[in-house]
Structures are given as structure tokens and as C-alpha cells.
Amino acid sequence: QNSPGTSVTVYGLIDGCLASADLGSERLNAVSSGCLYGSRLGFRGTEDLGGGLQAAFTLESGITIDNGQLAQGGRMFGRKALVSLSGPWGTVEAGRDYAPAFYLVQPIDPMALGIGTASSSLWTGAASTTSARNDNAVNYLSPTWGGVSLRLQATAGEGGSGGARKSQGLNLLYRSGGTLAGLSYARVGDVADDQHDSAFTLGVKQELGRFSVAALAQSGAWEASRTVAAPASTSSVFSRKYRSWLVGGSVRTGSVGKLSLSIKRYDDRTVRNFDFTQVSVNYVHALSKRTDLYAGWSRLGNNSRTSYTVSDATGAYGPVQAGASTSLLAAGIKHVF
Amino acid sequence: QNSPGTSVTVYGLIDGCLASADLGSERLNAVSSGCLYGSRLGFRGTEDLGGGLQAAFTLESGITIDNGQLAQGGRMFGRKALVSLSGPWGTVEAGRDYAPAFYLVQPIDPMALGIGTASSSLWTGAASTTSARNDNAVNYLSPTWGGVSLRLQATAGEGGSGGARKSQGLNLLYRSGGTLAGLSYARVGDVADDQHDSAFTLGVKQELGRFSVAALAQSGAWEASRTVAAPASTSSVFSRKYRSWLVGGSVRTGSVGKLSLSIKRYDDRTVRNFDFTQVSVNYVHALSKRTDLYAGWSRLGNNSRTSYTVSDATGAYGPVQAGASTSLLAAGIKHVF
Amino acid sequence: QNSPGTSVTVYGLIDGCLASADLGSERLNAVSSGCLYGSRLGFRGTEDLGGGLQAAFTLESGITIDNGQLAQGGRMFGRKALVSLSGPWGTVEAGRDYAPAFYLVQPIDPMALGIGTASSSLWTGAASTTSARNDNAVNYLSPTWGGVSLRLQATAGEGGSGGARKSQGLNLLYRSGGTLAGLSYARVGDVADDQHDSAFTLGVKQELGRFSVAALAQSGAWEASRTVAAPASTSSVFSRKYRSWLVGGSVRTGSVGKLSLSIKRYDDRTVRNFDFTQVSVNYVHALSKRTDLYAGWSRLGNNSRTSYTVSDATGAYGPVQAGASTSLLAAGIKHVF
């Protein structure tokens, strides 16, 4: 219906969980929010403008139900805030959104960016080191041509006398039957826009009956000013030169279960050699189309010099004692509305 | 309906009021929010999973309409953030919620935790001294057996290297006809979890035609590290040993009015003897099932050493000059949607 | 419908735009939110109480979609938070709202407080220098008598030992056919309430077929303590004595377009003579009743001593180099739901 005030859908996902993390010297037991998927509350709507045009908006809050707070550093609509205009030529969006690399990594990661998320070692392209999304973004999404689609994003530096980072990103995806394959590129400048962080990512997922197999590989270098400190930090993933890959897959068990596995390797290609390997597994049991019970486990091996942490969909469990291996066991309920 | 995006109810309560407080040396006149009940906006939904199972969620913001801000220290869903699974065996919830003691005190307090709230001298069990709710909570609610129900809560300390408080609480309630009776226990550890705040509470409310009578009694001791300073503070209720009680009742006047009264006594059982007595009265006039006009008054007598304040459902009116008695007069409108 | 939980309307407006500002020494290119109208999400409802009485509430968040954050300094419902009771005698509201002067200036400004907003040189009466609204407000809105209506507002200082500003405001509006005319008065005390900022405003708008013409004039003086620094600040509009006026108008172009123009002049009547003149133009193209595309431009001439900025509906584009003229070009989409 087109009259104001009747055209908004309220939707969301609430994920509550129990987590136990081995941090090396101690164990952290927690009631958490969003182990499998980040809890969220959203508002969205679309309007048919005629002539093949459509206007739409999305406002999506990330929340942590264990303390009733906003996620994404307290942003009200930290997950997404977009207005868009679509036509036969595609969609143009403005606002805050994930970088294009996210839209390649997320659907391929067997952990779906949950417990043992791929994003802890495969950069999803955000300009901020503490966020998965970009502010001040303009997106272009192409129509799908024979299964192929293109997504572009550019974000304004909005330097003025303050200064901030410009970024650009793209992905090219192919979807057909049980196949998803694609590549992405992400590039973020420093304040002066004369040095850049960048990464190139390839990914593929293939469904084979009850099974699916997945692989991701990324080659990148963080050379903008924010990473000056990285060689000295034992807990910072991504460095002046790195490679990262993931292999894994899923199997549907019975009519309502799904078991997934991923193995990740991060290869720091600088002299610091701050590498790690991580193994993750989860099981999701559907109570309905909207509600799942789940459990997952992930273990990351630190070498004597590193103190990387294990992350779930919402946060990292740390700090980890340097040189200690760390693991996370979590179980919970995910309810979509 | 079970499809995502159609299963959420938006609800709330808006309470706006005028308040005038005698603080001893001066009078504070204010436009306030939530004198009788805290203003709020919530989102909730349930899903029937079949086989007697039900999933549900609640996200409830506390707000102060006088300045458009969030209550509960700026938390987005500071009142409640819960996901739950229910079955014939009861309900398990995870998230942020009141401690069990609240669910005994709130329905018995003739002031309903409004102007002259019982909670200012009857601890409702929260781990934080500045909040009525607990983060990182898991609740268990039993089915009702012959009018009797049990509520348990445990909250994770989530110490890690940061440290926080573990807490446990329970209540046992009996409801039948016009009778509500129950007991509760609350226990909160300090960071090291080697000293504890605790309180035991008894309460009863009986309806007798147009009248209802109510009584609450609590015995407690705050011995965890947060209360080290308490003996020196003239404005902190709850001490290393205290007893507190309330008596009161209500009478329905005509078809739409209700007049309520409570008398509270706080008895500090330490050498500091920081006691007080408080008298509160309110009148609520229903314009409809959803909308009330109300007025209330409460007076608290400080002795020469104390500077306790009078609270309504949303905040305390202070600071009060030491040794002065203080009173609050407030009137407003409460609208439920 | 009168049962709780079914009586709330979710509404809003999302405005996303590209902006380019000439700040004198540099150009700022930005993806912004709310160039034409501030982006917002609101919740409102009404209840018919019978006997000509009606209860209502409004909770309206201001948001910036370019970063997913709350506007109005992070207030949850920073645009409006009101509960009201209406009868044949008018409406009484309590909460947070615009001052009465806003309700005169906003509908007359040809820029509708968007790109080149009138509010940058015509004070809309708020007690805060950084906000357009007042906290702790009680409003009275009269019924309309032969096209004439009255709005009164008083806000509580809520001094206590903290201290804040009391304010009073009113407007008197006449609406009939294509005519809107009115006057407003605003007055804000300093903390001690012994000095006052005040302004008197006159305005008129007349529709003439496809055309409308508009004029606003204000005479004011900021004499409360907050303006002690003003004579020394080259970027602060409003001074110890000032006059300000605006003339402009609109023309509907074709069936879906509207072109608007305004010329503003701010005349600082003190020895500092920090005057400016500003020219603004915008074009709004309706894609539907709910969705518009728009573009606007505004230029403000600073003299050698001033560094005033150009504002749109959400923010100011600065800082501007002293003595430089500054301009803003912006284009975007506005979607109402």
C-alpha cells in the first residue's frame, strides 16, 4: 500500500547464546548475544514508482541482547542505513553498508561469519579496522546477466579539515543452480589518500546433493597509515603483506540438521611471520523455518609470538595470553521475525 | 502468521508528568517522564513451534520523553532484551532482565514502583547499584502448579581479565483468586566472588472487594566490595546489615478511580543507623483502559545525618540537603499502546 | 482499534544525498543524510477517549543514514517525544518539541529549512544553541478560530543545584485559502534567569496559482550568558542585537516539479557588524507522492571578518576560512513512508 505510514516492515533476528572461551591463562564463561548471527532489529519498505522504478529503504540496528545495548560502537542503525532507487539499469544506494567483499565472503563461509568467522582472517573491505561496514557509501548493483552480477561501492573521504578515508570496492558474482563463484577487490586509502590497504579475494561454493563445499582465498596488503603499528602488534590480523585461505563445507543431516566445517590459514608474508591456523565446526538444528538451535566450536593456534582471538558473529573473546592456543565453545538459539 | 517480517508487535507506554520536589534548601520544578510508570517502546513476538514449544522475544527500550533520550544509562533496550524457548517444562530465557526479586516486589507495592517506589528501600536484586536489571542473565520460569510458580535467574560474571559480578536469584509466588504471596532471594558477588550482597524478601497482597492490602519485608546485607563506601555515604540506602518493610493498600473509588497508600521503613542495622520512614499516596483516574491521569505525593524524613532522596518510577529527585526532609508531588498522564 | 499493541503507526522519511561544499581553502565532497529534510523514523498513535477527548503520542528519531547514527547529539527520540491530551479546548502536550517560532518559520521558508535553511539566520526559539528543540516542554495548542490558532510553550529550567534554562514561546498563525501569516515570540533565560535571549518574528506566505511568495522578518537580541562570547566569534550567527529577513518564493513547473528561491540577509546591529547575505535555490522533482529527487544550491558571502557556514536540513558544512564566501551544492532522494 502506498500511503505514508502503512508501508514499513519491522523485522529482525534475535540470537542468544552461552559461550565458554579458553583464553590461555583463564576461561571466560559468558551469556552472549549473536554467536551465530548478530542480533538485529530492522525497518524496511519499498515503493513501486511505475515505469520499472522502485524506491526502497533499510534501517537495521545491531543489538546485543545480553546487555540491551547497540552493537557497532553504539550506532543506532549500525548494520545498515540505506535509501535506494532501482530501475532496469540496476540499483543505486546511498548510506552505510558492507563493502562488496563482504557479499562474496559471507555466503561462501561455511560458518556464515558466525563462530569461527571467516572475517577474522579474510578482510571484508571496510575502511574502519573495527567495523565490517563503510559510512558515506554509494553502491551500484547491476542487474543479473546470465547469473552474473556486479556490485560497486565508493565511499566519500569527507576530508574537509577533519580527514577520513576514501575507499573503493567491487565484486563480481556468478550464481547458477548450486554454484556460487566470485571475486572481489577492496581498496582503502589513508587520510592523505597516498597509501592504500587493498585485498583481492576469490571464492567458490558448490552444492552437491546433501553436501556443499566451499573455498576462499585472499591476497592483500595493509599499507595505509593505520597499519604502521601492525608489525609490532601480536593481536592484529592483516599486515603489510599477507595471504589467507579457507576450505570447508556443510552436510545436511536428516531433515532439520546441518553440520559445517571450516579450516582457515592466515599467512603473514612479512618478517614477523604472525601466522595462524583455525578449525571451526558448527551444527544448526531447525525447530522451524524461523527458529534454530545451534552449537559451534572453534580453535585457533597461536605461535609463541601471537595472541590472536577467536570471534563469533558479534565479538572477539579475549584478551588471549600470548603464545597460547585459544578456543571457543558456544550454543544458543536464533529466532528470526 | 509465521513468515518473517509479519510477526512483531510494537507496543509501549508513554508517561509525561509535572513534578515539584522539596530538596531542603530549594525546590525543583520539572517536566518529567515516567513518574508513575517508566516510558517505554517495545517490540515482541512469539512463534508456535509445534509440539508444545514456543519461541519468543522481547526488546524493550526505556525512554525519557522530557528530553527524548534513552533511560537505563543510554542502553537501547535497557528495560528488557530477551529471547526464550518455552515448553511444558517451563520457559528458558537469555538476555537482560529484572532479577526475580523485582517480580515479587513490583506487583505488591501499592505505588507499583512509581512515586515513592518500594524499590528505594526494598532491593530488587540487580547486580548494578544503578540499575534494576541484570545483564548476561539466564532465567528459568516454571509452569504454574496449583497457583505456585518458581523463577530462577543466574547471571554470568564474564570476568575474563575485566571482571564483573555473578548473581543468582529466585522467587516463589502463589497466586489464587485475590491472593498474591511469595518470597524471593537475591545474591550478588563482588568481582572476586568471595563476598556477597544478599537479601531475603517476603510479600503478600490480598484483595478484599474494593480494597486491597499489601505488605513487604526484606532482610539483607550488602557485603561485596561495592559497599565498602556505604557506611560513609549519607545518601546510599542498603548497608552491611539492614531490614526494610512496607505496608499499604488501595481502594477503588467509583468506577474509574483508585487511591493507594504505602508506608515504608528502612532500618539500617549498623552503627551508622541511617534509617528513614517514607509515606506515599497516589490517585489514578482512568480515562480509558489505555489512558490514565494520575497524581501522587511522597515524603521521606531524613535524620540529621542522612540525605536520602524521593524517587519515582524513572529517577530520584536530588541532591537533598543533609538532614532535611524531602517530598515529591507529581501529576501526569500515562498512555499505553 | 483500542487494544494495546495494535495502535501504533511506524512512519518516517529517508533522505540521502551527495553534497559538495566550497569551504574557501578547500572543497568538501560528502555522502550526506538529510540535505532537504532530516531523515527520521517515528512511532505515533492516537486514542479516542470519548466525550471529545483524545490521547496521543509521538516518538520521532532523527537519524543520519550516511553513518547509521542518531542525530540531535545522539538522542534516541531527538526530533520529538510527546504525549498529549486533546479536547474541545485545545491540546496540551508534554515532552520534547520545537519552540513555537519553528512552526511559523518552517512552513514559510521556501527552502523548507533544507539547503540554505532559513533557520541559519532566523532563530527558531530553542533554548540550546546547538538544537532546534526544547527539552522539558509543556505546549498548549488552541483550537482554530476562523483560521487563527495560538501555540504556547513553556519549558522547565529544572535548576535544582544543576541549573538549566527556562524558556517561553508563542506563535499566532492565520491560515485561510492560500494565505499563511503569523507572528512568534521566543524568550530564553540564562541559568540565573536574569538575562534573556529573545526574538520577535513576522512571516507571510501567499499562494497565487502556480506561484507562491514568502517573506520573514525577525528582530532579536541574545543577551543571556551564553552569548557573552558571541562578539568575539566570527562564526556565530545571532548577537546582542540583530535583524534578519528573508524573501523568496516557489513556482510549480509542469505537473511534478517545483522550483524555489530565497534571499536572506542577516544584519548584526552591534559594532562588530558581522552581517551576511545568502542566496538559495532548489528544485524538487516528484517521482510519486512519497518519493522526490532534488537538487539545491546555496551561497553565503562572508566579509573579511566572518566565517559563517552554509547549512542544509541536517548540518553545517565547515569550517569555512574566514573572509571566504562559501557555497553548497547538493542533490539527493527523499523517500517518505
Structural account:
3 copies of one chain form a homotrimer. Chain A has 337 residues and is mainly β. The first copy, chain A, has one domain: Porin, CATH 2.40.160. In chain A, 3% of the residues lie in helices and 55% in strands. The first copy, chain A, contains 1 helix and 20 strands. Chain A has a 16-stranded antiparallel barrel with strand order 1-3-4-6-7-8-9-10-11-12-13-14-15-16-17-20. In chain A, a hairpin with a 3-residue loop joins β14 (242-253) and β15. The radius of gyration of chain A is 20 Å and the shape is globular. Mean pLDDT of chain A is 92; it is low at 1-5. Chains in contact: A-B, A-C, B-C.
* Domain module count of chain A: 1
Distance between the termini of chain A: 21 Å
- Main interface by residue count: A-B, 41 and 43 residues
Q: From the structure provided, what is the oligomeric state, counting identical versus distinct chains?
A: homotrimer
Structural class of chain A: mainly beta
**Strand segment tally of chain A:** 20
Radius of gyration of chain A: 20 Å
Provide the descriptors you would attach to this structure in a database record.
55% strand, Porin, mainly beta, homotrimer, two-stranded antiparallel ribbon, 337 residues
